[in-house]
Amino acid sequence: MFVRVAALEDIAEGGVIAQTVNGRAICLCRYNGSVYAVERACGHKKAGLEKGTLEGYILTCPLHFAQFDITTGQALSGPVPPDGAETAALITYTVKIESGAIFIDTFPQIVV
């Protein structure tokens, strides 16, 4: 089921914002004219990814610099310096844009 989460104008190109939808904490990321939705908590130590940086399609955690591909949720690198903890992929959500509004499917896409 798709739920409206924000207006497209709420996110600048290259920006990241946090939202809570049906009890799920997510980040909306705008890259190359598209919007992607990933879980808000870093796959390493659960830091809030909306405080990180988005360079292209790579979202970097503000706490230990783990990196994620916002298009797939895949963990691209673990923390710096490595601490032996596993860095899990991020849950992603299907996004659609209609009439300037951003909607996400509240059924997550699980990365395996």
Summarize the structure.
This protein has about 110 residues and is mainly beta.
Number of distinct beta strands: 11
Physical arrangement of strands within the biggest beta sheet: 2-3-4-9
Overall structural class, as computed from helix and strand content, comes to: mainly beta
Which strand-content bin applies to the residues? 35-45%
**Whole-Å distance between the termini?**
22 Å
Q: What is the top-level CATH class?
A: Mainly Beta
Any descriptors?
Rieske Iron-sulfur Protein, single chain, four-stranded antiparallel beta sheet, about 110 residues, mainly beta, about 45% strand
Secondary structure blueprint with pairings:
Elements: E1 2-7, E2 16-21, E3 24-31, E4 34-39, E5 53-55, E6 58-60, E7 67-69, E8 75-77, E9 92-93, E10 95-98, E11 101-105
Antiparallel strand pairs: 1-11, 2-3, 3-4, 4-9, 5-6, 6-7, 7-8, 10-11
Provide structural commentary.
The protein has one domain (2-105): Rieske Iron-sulfur Protein, CATH 2.102.10. The chain is 0% helix and 44% strand. The chain is built from no helices and 11 strands. The protein has strands at residues 2-7, 16-21, 24-31, 34-39, 53-55, 58-60, 67-69, 75-77, 92-93, 95-98, 101-105. The strands form 3 sheets. It has a 4-stranded antiparallel beta sheet with strand order 2-3-4-9, with no helix packed on it. The protein has a 4-stranded antiparallel beta sheet with strand order 5-6-7-8, with no helix packed on it. Strands 1-11-10 form a 3-stranded antiparallel beta sheet, with no helix packed on it. A hairpin with a 2-residue loop joins strand 3 (24-31) and strand 4 (34-39). It starts with a strand and ends in a 7-residue tail after the last strand.
